[in-house]
Design brief:
The structure is a single chain. Helices cover 48% and strands 11% of the residues. The chain is an alpha/beta fold. It is globular. InterPro entries: ICL/PEPM (IPR039556), Pyrv/PenolPyrv_kinase-like_dom (IPR015813), Pyrv_kinase-like_dom_sf (IPR040442).
């Protein structure tokens, strides 16, 4: 086993251990080196990327529009910038078939990340969907699992089920897909699109793996989600959206009224500069 593989294995095991029902891993998703360092500095046990934020920061739209090379270059930069484990949002795998998904996973490991999110929504504009057939998605997850196992790294495969997000099913459909994905080698199940307490409790009780939910403004606090049995709480693109909203407000105010109120409350130059000057 090489030093690189041994280090990845240790980080992967550490990341895996953070998924505890009732004591969830809370992830403010990052999209570049600065946001990742700020998340780590705030005390996060790991850093998760947001595919939307990564795409926007590189001038592309979310939704399988950013190519794999550029997306994983961003992941590698984030891995090098922080000390905690990193998990990568790889959308639907940046590939049309299971073999391509396996190639993406090998690239993720080369970048140094120890977890992935893989969604089952069919890419927009392909005339398919809204979700891939469960059997087809299970093959893609199995390919990801096999690639990680062959590399000797217990990569945490977080299988995203988009039934609620895409209006393609309810609890029963979600549980059925979750079971198929776990059987294919997934380690956790991510169900965005619902923060209803009753629904979350049903999902947590029916899924035999760590449950990840997507939270944000209007959702129950992380502590309440923990009490429902959630093992991972993430916010997707919400933090990036809030950051870009400040840019938008400040620019419109400055170019309109010529005033600066939207710029108040920012982090001090010295604080950010010192954070970015640190070695990971």
């Amino acid at each position: 086993m090489t030093n690189h593989t041994a280090g990845l294995r240790d980080r992967a095991l550490a990341f895996r251990s953070l998924h505890l029902p009732g004591r969830p891993l809370v992830l403010p998703n990052a999209w570049d080196v600065a946001s990742a360092r700020l998340v780590e500095d705030a005390g996060a046990g790991a850093v998760a990327t947001t595919s939307a934020g990564v795409a926007w920061a590189r001038g592309a739209a979310d939704g399988d529009r950013l190519d794999r090379e550029r997306a994983l270059r961003a992941v590698a930069e984030i891995v090098r910038a922080v000390r905690v484990p990193v998990t990568a949002d790889i959308e639907s795998g940046y590939a049309p078939d299971p073999e391509g998904v396996a190639g993406t996973v090998r690239a993720v490991l080369a970048a140094g990340a120890v977890g992935v999110n893989i969604e089952d929504a069919a890419p927009r504009g392909t005339g398919r969907g809204p979700l891939r057939p469960a059997g087809e998605q299970a093959e893609r997850i199995a390919a990801a699992r096999a690639a990680a196992d062959a590399a000797g790294v217990p990569l945490f495969v977080n299988a995203r089920v988009d039934t609620f997000l895409r209006g393609a099913g309810g609890v029963d459909d979600t549980l059925e897909r979750a079971a198929a994905y776990l059987a294919a080698g997934a380690d956790g199940i991510f169900v965005p699109g619902t923060v209803d307490p009753g629904t979350i409790e049903e999902l947590a009780g029916g899924i035999r793996a760590p449950l990840n939910v997507l939270a944000g403004p209007g959702a129950p606090p992380a502590g309440a989600l923990a009490a429902m049995g959630v093992a991972r709480v993430s916010v997707g693109s919400a933090v990036a959206e809030a950051a870009y909203a400040v840019v938008h407000r400040a620019a419109r105010e400055l170019l309109g009224a010529g005033t600066y109120d939207a710029q108040t409350g920012g982090l001090a130059y010295g604080t950010l500069n010192e954070l970015m000057g640190q070695d990971a």
